[in-house]
Specification:
Arc Repressor Mutant, subunit A, elongated, 76% helix
Amino acid sequence: MSSAREKILDAYEESLTTVGVAATTLDAVARIAGVSKGGLIYHFPSKEALADALIERFTGMARASADQLHGDAATTVRHFIEMSSSVGDELDTAWLAVMNLSRNGNQSATRAVLELERSWHDAILESTGSPLVAHMTKLLGDGLYHSTSFVSESRESLPEAAKLLPSDGEREAIIRTLLDLLDE
C-alpha cells in the first residue's frame, strides 16, 4: 500500500475516533491527510471503499495480535493481560475506529471485531486448555482495557482515577490466580 493510502487511512481513523462516523466526510479526511479530495478519491472512490480498506488493515493487525498469543498458558495469559492494559497503540486506535463503524451499522466492521474477539479467546483456550480460564482471562482483559482507557482520558483532571487500576504486583497476583485455576 502506498504511503499516500496509509496517510489517508490514518486520517480516516483519526476522524472516526475523534468526531465519529457522521462527521467523517471525504472532505474532512482529505483535509486531515493533507491531500486534495481528488487525491483521496483516486485511492478511495467512496466512503465505503475507505471503510473497507480500514477494516482490511484492522483485520491484518488483529491477526498479528492473535498470533502473538500462541505459547504456553502462562505466557499467553500474561501477554493478553498486559496487552489489555495498553491503550493508544496502533491496534487500539484501529479498534476504536472500526468499533465506531460497527456501532453505525457497518456489518463488515462488526464481523472484523467479532473475529478479533473470537481469535483472542481461541488462542487463550488453545494455550490454557480451559474454557473457564479462557473466558475469565478474556473478560478480565476487557475490564482492564475499559479501566485503562478511562484512566488515560481522566488522569489529568482526576488523578484519583489511577487508583482504579491494579498495581504491577496486583496484576501479577491476578495472573497467578488465573493460572492456579488450571492446576485445580
